[in-house]
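Appendix B. Raw example, untouched.
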Amino acid sequence: MKQELQLQLQSYLDGELSGREARQVAALVEQNHEAQSLLGELRMTKAFLAGNEPEVTVPESREFYWSKIEREIARAEKSPASAGSGFLLAWRKHFAPLVGVALVFFLAVGVVQHYDLSLFDGNTQMENEVENNSEFTSSFSFRSHPEKMFVVWVQDKSAETVSEVDLEIMDEVEDVVIQ
């Protein structure tokens, strides 16, 4: 059954249809067995709900409640703010930002005192130490900051003699380091 027909049956039961529409739905219910069974179920549900709905009564009338609300709104508008709350509002409005700025200042001073900021200076060169704990190799390192270069020369200690090429390279590196 279509949803539109179900809604028409509900409207028919509630008495919301015009005379012509109600006659059309009544004729449809007489011809369609599915519509008859749905209308019967809707009538039983309506009767069950009507018989079992709790009825709640309010001791005062609706107008009494609205008048109480109106009186409370008028009283709140007329009453001046208390003297203590005016000072608190002024404090929060003017002094709270100052307290925030002071807090940021003290945190910045604490950071500067705690850390050595000279490490972040571009002119200061950071020195790294390379340590080799191997008994089979030795190393030599060179760093050139202007050229942004770092070279590590690793040499096998087991070789008893140093070749002439190795000596020439080491001499060139020493010349660069001295300059």
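End of appendix B.
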